[in-house]
């Protein structure tokens, strides 16, 4: 019997950066709970964005935000993994060597931006629903860093190749779509966060179902026997998953979940 369902958001439940979920998702989550199945949202987005997207059910679900660096439940933080300050600062300085790149400094309490790009700020606030706090210089922040998200409108993997090569052995580096490269503490990933939830609830891998589309979803899929890649997923993700669902734009995840009711 399935007891735990885990799903990525962008590229899996919705197109990348979409602020809106199909309202039917909320009804299905509640019906799954009635049947004894817990629901986990596992996203690269910060906690404020995840809570906003799932507002109608936010106190009924677990959420894994910032690619596993933040775990919340019933509207409160359970734990957060932060980066060493010195490492975070070295990554930030490296990113600043690339004028075509932008970045967001995710803390426990907010998402800090020192970019002068008002359009980017507006998109993050109204599109992704980030809790954006504009500052003069993120290097002056005292708040511990949960994640550094490097942004480019397209081609992020190629644009950050030298950054990845320099820090891949010191930090967890993962592409989240074609626009974001996320940098976190070394051992942080969605899979580790899901395992923590499984252990706390006494739920086995064989009782877990998961859905994803990007490289940052692979560890999460490995924590579930019923692992699904949506049809639009990267090839590496399709190979990692045991099963395939229809694409995000065709409601692939919803189709599978309805079959559990």
TrEMBL record:
<dbReference type="InterPro" id="IPR036412">
    <property type="entry name" value="HAD-like_sf"/>
</dbReference>
<dbReference type="GO" id="GO:0005829">
    <property type="term" value="C:cytosol"/>
</dbReference>
<protein>
    <recommendedName>
        <fullName>HAD family phosphatase</fullName>
    </recommendedName>
</protein>
<dbReference type="InterPro" id="IPR023214">
    <property type="entry name" value="HAD_sf"/>
</dbReference>
<dbReference type="GO" id="GO:0000287">
    <property type="term" value="F:magnesium ion binding"/>
</dbReference>
<dbReference type="Pfam" id="PF08282">
    <property type="entry name" value="Hydrolase_3"/>
</dbReference>
<dbReference type="GO" id="GO:0016791">
    <property type="term" value="F:phosphatase activity"/>
</dbReference>
<dbReference type="InterPro" id="IPR006379">
    <property type="entry name" value="HAD-SF_hydro_IIB"/>
</dbReference>
<dbReference type="InterPro" id="IPR000150">
    <property type="entry name" value="Cof"/>
</dbReference>
């Amino acid at each position: 019997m399935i007891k735990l369902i885990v799903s990525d958001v962008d590229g899996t439940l919705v197109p990348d950066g979409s602020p809106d979920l199909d309202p039917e998702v909320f009804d299905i989550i509640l019906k799954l709970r009635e049947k004894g199945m817990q629901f986990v949202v596992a996203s690269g987005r910060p906690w404020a964005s995840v809570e906003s997207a799932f507002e109608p059910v936010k106190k009924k679900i677990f959420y894994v935000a910032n690619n596993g660096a933040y775990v919340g439940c019933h509207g409160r933080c359970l734990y957060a993994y932060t980066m060493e300050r010195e490492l975070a600062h070295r990554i930030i300085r490296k990113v600043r060597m690339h004028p075509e790149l932008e970045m967001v400094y995710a803390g426990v309490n907010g998402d800090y931006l020192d970019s002068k790009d008002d359009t980017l700020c507006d998109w993050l606030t109204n599109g992704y629903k980030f809790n954006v706090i504009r500052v003069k210089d993120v290097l002056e922040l005292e708040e511990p860093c949960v994640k550094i998200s490097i942004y480019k409108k397209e081609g992020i993997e190629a644009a950050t190749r030298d950054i990845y090569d320099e820090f891949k052995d010191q930090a967890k580096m993962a592409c989240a779509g074609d626009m974001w490269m996320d940098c976190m503490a070394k051992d942080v990933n969605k899979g580790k966060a899901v395992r923590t939830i499984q252990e706390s609830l006494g739920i086995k891998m064989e009782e877990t179902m998961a859905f994803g589309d990007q490289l940052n979803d692979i560890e999460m899929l490995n924590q579930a026997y019923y692992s699904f890649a949506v049809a639009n997923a990267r090839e590496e993700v399709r190979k990692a998953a045991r099963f395939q669902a229809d694409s995000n734009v065709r409601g692939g995840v919803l189709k599978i979940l309805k079959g559990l009711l």
